[in-house]
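step=predict obj=TATA box-binding protein-associated factor RNA polymerase I subunit C isoform X2 n=720
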Amino acid sequence: MMLENFKLEGGRNRSKKMTVVSAKRLLQDLGGHQPWGCPWAHLSHRLRRFAIVGGPVLGKSVSSLLGRLLHEELATRWEQLLLDEAFTGGTLAWLPGRTPQVGQLVYPAGGALDRLRFQEVSLTSGSDPQVLGDPGCIQLQGPVRQVVTNTVQGETLLAVRSDYHCAVWKVRRQRRPAPLQVLRVAKGATGISLSPHLPGELAICSRSGAVCLWTPQDGLQQVYKDPETLVFRDPSPWRWADFTAHPRVLTVGDRTGVKMVDTQGPPGCGLLLFRAGAEASCQKGERVLLTQYPGQCSPESLPPTLHLICTQFSLYLVDERLPLVPMLKWNHDLPSPALLARLLPPAGPGCPQPLFLGGLGGQVQLLHITGKEASAPRLAGPPQSLPSLTDCLSAFPLLEPKSHQQLQERLEAPTIGLACASPPSASTPTAWLFQLSAAGDIFYQHLALQAATSFHRDCGPPGDPRPDSPAPRATAPPMDQRPPPSWSPQVTAWCSRWLEALLQVPPASPVWTAPTFSHRRLLGRLEPQPVEGKVPQALRAAMARGRILQQRDLGLLPRAEPPPAPEPGPQDELSERLEAAWEGQGATWWKRQQGKASEPGKQTKRPKRRTPLSSTFSSLTSCLDLSDTSSPPHSSELRPQPPVTPHSQESAQQLWAQGDHSERWQTLGDYMAELPLTKGTPPLGHVPTPPSQASSVQATPSRLPTPGSQPHRKRPRMGF
């Protein structure tokens, strides 16, 4: 099949046109190369010919292959419904710009999330973010799953993870990002991290359990590989790698725990940092979802040996110096998986560090963590739940049901990115929180470090829909943490423009629809039969008036005659015997039967034969001469006779009862007694035949042989 043309053997009567198929065009057809519309709605002649000729091969190999692929796809979809781990770490990042108030938002766009955009934004206290110019765009060959940025020694790097590729760019101020290198991961990449110690060094992990150090100058170096999980067996292939306070020590995590690995030590050397078990007071079924090294942002921040570990129930802070025992545990109670975490530097000396923890459902919680080298980390005050995207739904004006549903679906899209920015301010320290939804929208909140103060939707100019995404680039009204019952005129105007831009976007059409076929082409030869009667006419009249057909529209319907009662059949000896045995009179029934059998002049009653057998031998009885049955025939010659009448049947029964001991003629007489009347013969006191036997007799006409046409046959010795 890899040749240009391949021949399908096995059909000698087939022409060359039917046995030789062009592999190039066949593969084009199988790949959906149909420029005139839906590729599934058209079957080319090549595919049809290949299916006919290669039927034996396709029925065995293709069905098993499709079965395995379908089972794998269904299992993958089910795992994604339970936990979509593709966007672990987030796809939104903040790059510092030329001034502290100006930076860039890096995020994916497009329906397939395969366009990396760089949008410059200006942040000013007391006002909304200002978009500076049009965003830059880089076209990729796969969906963006994770975006990571870091600045080391004045050099800012940007790393992007896709399903099977990883890439790194060098970001320069007021210039387009310069690509450094692209790496292909055959088994699928699950995590990427930038080193906080050495510029240009990255840690990459794959689904096969391998962890590699990657630098654009030195290439790829594998430092760890273990296809099995760390603590106990778990079927998830998810792996994660990050850096530690030591430049040559990495953390490797899976669903069961986190391990520290020395890149310069022997293979397999390491120390378990966190275990999902009794040491951390984990619940039953608790699994690791995210492990992150926050690093050291400033001398007044937390110790550089702390690591952040998130599960579906709790948040843990673990110190490298005291492994296996968490320094801080807090139950976050997020209804969706916590796959996003961002830690900001403290606003000043002695101030706690704000930590944003986000879930896929759009819920974000703000924690203030404090602690120095000599003390354990702790929470400075109760955690704060920020308003989610769906909380602002009730503050919007009343909409039509269809528009309200469209707005609700837009706000309920999963959150796949989280970014934070805290520009220096002379007044109260503030922070900007940006959220990226799976629909391509960017939301932001302007927060004071003590409480949230506002909410905003998207960072584009109002009323201008994006050309490549159905997301409108209109700003939404600001909101407090609790939506106010009424809005100011300015907020109402913002809300109106945002809704107008949102509702003007047409709904996305389905990617694939089932092909439709014309019933006229399939049923063209079938002409509609005119239906006459009172019921169809009344039904058409009722449909024309738009009401339901009722009984009074039909008038008095003719009464249906009751079906005829079944005629009593012969008495069943088995039923009588069972009834007598059930009543405890089995011996009496047996004596009564023996008395009937001993009476003179009575013949033992034979069991009733089945009807299909009588119809089978109806043709044979019409060919036999039964007028002279007192003596068996000595010649095998057969001559045509008229149809048998009930009078001849009765005479035959009398002759056989007089002493003909031939079993063949006696059995044939029994079947003659069961045969119905021949069509056109008047009944002579004969019992009417059931309809089932009559239909079987009519369906098997008797064949009368002509004289001399049948050869002489030997007399059968047994049976018929």
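step=describe
The chain has 15 helices and 32 strands.
step=end
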